[in-house]
Write the structure tokens for this entry.
Amino acid sequence: MSGKVAVVTGSNKGIGLAIVQALCKQFQGDVYLTARDVGRGQAAVESLASEGLKAIFHQLDINNLNSITTAAAFFKEKYGGVDILIHNAGIAFKVADTTPFAVQAEVTLETNFFAARDVLTHFLPLIKRGGRVVNISSFVGPRTLNKCSAELQQRFRSEDITEDELVALMQRFIDKAKKGEHKQDGWPETPYGVSKLGLTTLSMILARRLLKERPNDGILLNACCPGWVRTDMAGEAAEKSPDEGAVTPVYLVLLPPKITEPHGKFVSDKEVQPW
Ligand code: NDP
């Protein structure tokens, strides 16, 4: 049980894979490429090996609680915890997708908010002193926040919002979407945007909790936007390469020891953004 370790969720392709690649070059420790599908994950590890980079595979399906707890137990047993966690896994319906709005709302939030929360619930207690946690959110989070009703904006921006209250708000969006009442209830027309608004707000809540419960442990936890990146999710027209998309998350998790900021912030292009 020794050595430093970095874990990246959803990293068999896209931005997650580019993050693993960058960490293999820059992080002094073991780098875990995790994926829900063993075949896709191992193929990605092999593609990195062909470039001379050593990543290690572990299965992790964020929609499967048993998979999360099995992975968490593995890192606790083998490394005594986790030094770096980048929660990157996420989904988005294509703009042209005709799946009903209410279904898109439930499915998108299930992965991008509720499953992300499950990962954080089980991995945050494992983060070692001086550890770094980054949640890959999106620029659509603040954009969505600004389109919410004044009541919702006030709650998402407040310093006293609790995790339970946030969970209830995310559930409220799904319930209202199912009744076709989300607009009247103050929500914009974007399940993906709401899911990333929720993930960023959750990051802020957890960062405040870390300061309260582990004030001397020097852990930094932030949400960030990778930019608009050419991946299967965003398509070929996007402006950044996956390597460029990896820059801000990798910068945040490699911030040197003893630094106290940023923490509990939303960061884009290495800069803290207004919330
Ligand atoms: P991709 O679709 O290319 O990759 C998404 C990754 O997440 C895949 O590895 C996918 O695995 C994985 N994933 C999805 N669901 C699960 C799950 N249940 N368990 C484990 N892994 C899962 O997207 P990007 O690389 O573009 O996106 C990465 C992150 O960046 C996402 O959170 C996205 O929302 C965010 N983002 C992306 C932007 C962009 O412009 N691309 C802009 C802003 C934010 P599988 O191959 O098995 O499907």
Summary: The mean pLDDT is 98.
